[in-house]
Amino acid sequence: MTQTRTCTCPNCGTEFVIDATFNPDMLTLARDIRGMTTADVSKKTRIKMGVLDRYINGLKEPPLDDVRKLGKALDYPESFFYRVGKRRPLQFPMHSAYNDWINS
User: Domain limits of the chain?
Assistant: First the structure.
């Protein structure tokens, strides 16, 4: 379900409205890039593990307050979590032997 959200520009502080749906893949991607576990994110944001798991698995849409907490904890703007896209595994296309070894 698409919802209207108010986001804040991280550079100038201007608030703007977006029509978007929270993308749990972006949450997982941000967490992986920062090298954090779900437990780390839970502790840093004070969002209960069970609730955070529902966000990650796409079972629950987080309220804007929680999106702000996630953005602050993971050092991403709120709008990042509303981007369209899928989380992709980190791979090195020119080194298929390395990818085979790391993914085995």
Answer: 23-83
The residue behind tokens 């437990």 is: 39
In this predicted model, what pLDDT tens digit does every residue of 36-51 receive, in sequence order?
999 999 999 999 999 9
Count, residues in the chain: 104
Encode pLDDT of 23-36 as tens digits: 999 999 999 999 99
Spell out where the chain has E strands: 3-8, 15-20
The CATH classification number of 23-83 equals 1.10.260.40
Dihedral angle computed from the Cα positions of residues 17, 33, 71 and 38, in that order, rounded to the nearest 10 degrees:
120
**Contact, 44 vs 73, CB < 8 A?**
yes
CA gap 45, 47 in Å, rounded: 5
